[in-house]
Amino acid sequence: MSTLNTQHLRNYPAKPAQVYLYGTCLADSLFPDSGIDAIEFLEQQGVEVIYPQGQTCCGQPAYNSGYQDEAKAVALAQVAQFPKNIPIVIISGSCGGMMRHHYPDLLKDEAGITEFCDRIFEFTEFLVHVLKIKLDDKGEPEKVALHTSCAARREMGVHITGRALIDQLDNVELINHNYESECCGFGGTFSVKHGDISGAMVKDKTKNLVNADVVRFISADWGCMMNINGALEYQKQSLRGEHIASYLLKRTQNHASEQGE
Amino acid sequence: MAAEQFDPNESKYAASARAFRDNVSRDLGNDELRDNFRGAMDYLMDKRTKAFVDGDELETLREQCKLIKQRCLLKLPHLLEQLEENLQANGIQVHWAETITDANDIIAQLITEKNGKTVVKGKSMVSEETALNDYLEERDIECLESDMGEYIVQLANEHPSHIIMPAIHQNKKQVADLFADNIEGFKHTTDVDALIGEGRRVLREKFCNADVGITGVNFAVAETGTLCLVENEGNGRMCTTVPDLHIAITGIEKVVEFLDDVPPLLSLLTRSATGQLISTYFNMISHPRQNDEKDGPQEVHLVLLDNGRSQAFADEELRQTLQCIRCGACMNHCPVYTRIGGHAYGTVYPGPIGKIISPHMLGLEATNNLPTASSLCGACGEVCPVKIPIPKLLLRLRKESVKPANDETTVMKGEGSGRKKIEAVIWQGWSLMHKYALIYNTSMWFATRLRKLMPKKVGVWTSVRTAPKLAPKTLHEKIKARNKTRSAQQQNTIATQNIGGK
């Protein structure tokens, strides 16, 4: 048995009527449809979704680069956007990790920060532990792989909840790929500062995903997916990653409404 | 011998750590090296997993050992004094070395006093840290590494690429070639047992004739004045029993309070390092040879080295660096270490632990590339047996590296040396843009509209990936539009219902 990191274990609230959505800066500028899909999916579960227009970025890029004052200013601006005492659902694991596990350190002098961090839920975590969701798979049989971001995996336990969701899809077979728990090489500014090492890592990650012989891979983190999909496209591979929110929406909708989009 | 003040900027390790990027390019391009590391790391990760079948037991033990190390570090100055007192009471002499030059001077002096000419050395990363072999060689003292991996590395005129398995970067064919070039009468073979047998034959002779034995220390027990040494090959025992003079050298952080602290730490050490439930040898050195004893050295000395450790100790967060028991598990599980190998780091301690301890030894001027060379994947922190929060400490060192000159909150050597004006300005701009949603949303509006003008090549990113493509409209806009449509629809529905109702 591998080491189980238990820091993500927490008490979960009952299903709320309303939630906030934190879309993340990458989804905002590069992959907005996954944000819309997440909202649709949550609404189908009977949850009203509020998206504060003042949100920007969680501050992780500056924080990870050592510019903590700069990160702090941005983080505080985010906290102010979510005043109601309702869950904040995040569609990216590492941003979730930042807001739940690093804000307490970064903003330790701010009043109410613990309560704010307690309201942070990664999307798949929220579906499994708060909504206790039951999925009805309406898609064709297919084989997929799951990629979980490292921060999400080790800070938030998303590898467990992501897997639990895919496992609920009757017609989907989840294939384990080699070195599944190993980093894809993104790491934010790491991929720029140490591009050679990052490049070697993503080459290996794509090789293992391609060798897994799946039709797509699923992830709940756009940072990793931007990295892996970019490498796959560069290599002219047909395999691509899809955000779990879009994937779940697609699998649980009947075909007609999907076409009507 | 006059003890010159050691300047870390002049050490060979400082120079090679500074060349990190060049080293990385060199070693990433070496396919044989990468295969050697991948194979070895896979093997070690698998062994570790099998040694910890019970996840709950592992977690309990990690917590226990973390607390042991933290307790001992909290009392470090007191425990070091107690250790000195009890070692002296046992007849072991204690020497304090602030710098690596101090340590080398002390050791050279001890050897010269005994007219020593030949030294056999059990594996000691601390003596690697002080570059003791070179130092002694300059004084015509032959120092032979007796750990098989260290012996191979010494023959190859290299330094260790791993703290537990120094020659793990070499495969058996490379070792066979190395032996063929260096050992007279060696019959070329790639049979691992035969290779080790050959190495042992050479070493045996040296053990019998050496004047001095030098070793490291895994745990120094303050309560009893005992030096504990973990090893697998018996060479450590040879070095500590055959020569008349035994000199042990260790970093000050290796002291533990009680003998009872050792068993849990030892159990975690061997399992984390090589997946062994117990090592072949566990030596406890409590005194020099007694009158009624037939073997053992006439004199035993311990050199306690600081070399930047007290700088780490002074800060409560950075102090956690010193919890390290040198098992190497963080390296074995690190995707960066696996790709580039240990030599690329240019430091004595490579891998994740090297990235957080080397800045204390060499200063951040020489090492500010190291903390950034991590994707912060967290694998190191996940496997660390004593729960050192390595990713968190990497973040802390990144912060120390780029801190503004007027910030005087810590006293790290070389703090602020990684700060580049242009980078600082970029982050300030970034912060401003993301602090004010109006600026952010306006910028994003323009960026998405002008997306066709975005460059297809974005530096190093596009050397293995295509450039990210901005969406035609941001999520902010899409949601705004969606909400508008929805409220219009709702209005219509209400209107229709009202009309129908009437």
Mean pLDDT of chain B: 94
Please count the beta strands of chain B (DSSP E, at least 2 residues each).
Answer: 10
Q: Report the sheet with the most strands of chain A, covering strand number, pairing sense and barrel closure.
A: 4 strands, parallel
Strand content of chain A: 5-15%
Low-pLDDT segments of chain B? 1-6
Mean pLDDT of chain A: 93
Global Rg of chain B: 28 Å
> Which bin fits the share of residues in helices of chain A?
40-55%
Question: Based on DSSP secondary structure assignment, what is the total number of beta strands of chain A?
Answer: 8
Largest sheet of chain B: 6 strands, parallel
How many DSSP H or I helices of chain A? 14
The helix/strand series of chain A, from N terminus to C terminus, equals: EHHEHHEHHEHEHHEHHEHEHH
Helix content of chain B: 40-55%
Unreliable segments of 5+ consecutive residues of chain A: 1-5, 256-261
